[in-house]
């Protein structure tokens, strides 16, 4: 069994936040009060070496707070955290040497200087051996195309170029865990794809464990094997992405009939709902309690002359959206 690199038990974090008192107009101006924000409520989480975990939640769910606690930036109010068996708040220096952290808005780079200066400086700060440093730069050139960016001042880079630089900076020492807070926000599809390939390389070839947050569930599907969903400070789902996709009860299929129109008798089939008809094409929702895709196609082909079909893949976004809806019993948009 793989060893656990992150173990979190009953982790709770409160923030105290100033609010204006509402007693009277004048008190508005002069008096302040505090409210307590329960950002994380007794969460349990363990992550094994080599996992790629997507950490998902609506705005304010507590994702960044979790990363700040796991990387020793914040101290928990109660519960325990172990990263490599150590308390990250007490042993921050030792842990920092073995992890890479990326927060969307914060930069590891010197704004006015060419990228290579920041990388050289980080090499000195973290005492990165020459061979590791060179290998990392080569990897960043290969996967992120940073060759042309090394001599450019960071201040003049586009968002995508800067994020390539940030990725290079956090992987220079070849960390054992990467914590990435919304690493793909605002990036185009090509840059996202490069990052996905780099992350898979680091995971598969270097055994790097990856913990990332994102609002883009397509990123999770492409990059992560496991997804953990946080809602209002509590973990409401923790499963392998494949398991979730396989558990979906309804699947969607578009069928093209050889005849010029969709047969009326299709509506009589149990376990099938015809969602739309357009000439000889029907979009069908079928219940997986009744059919596998094979049994459904067999039934359709026995009864009709089928010209073609297209199976729509279940989508993680819909699964998670339904989960939020069922928790709140109202539509979440
Ligand atoms: N420094 C702070 N002081 C007070 N409250 C805070 C502070 N930081 C975060 N919070 C509150 O804690 C809760 C969790 O915030 P957090 O930033 O962890 O959420 P998030 O899931 O990362 O959100 P987003 O997706 O919007 O980045 C929110 O209600 C937020 O307002």
From TrEMBL:
Give any GO molecular function from the UniProt entry.
Answer: ATP binding
Q: Which Pfam families match?
A: ABC_tran
Q: What are the record keywords, sorted?
A: ATP-binding, Nucleotide-binding, Transport
In terms of domain of life, where is this protein from? Bacteria
* Domain ABC transporter residues, every copy: 19-257
Q: Which InterPro entries match?
A: AAA+_ATPase (IPR003593), ABC_transporter-like_ATP-bd (IPR003439), ABC_transporter_ATP-binding (IPR050763), P-loop_NTPase (IPR027417)
PROSITE patterns the record matches: ABC_TRANSPORTER_2
* UniProt protein name: ABC transporter domain-containing protein
Q: From what organism does this protein derive?
A: Anoxybacter fermentans
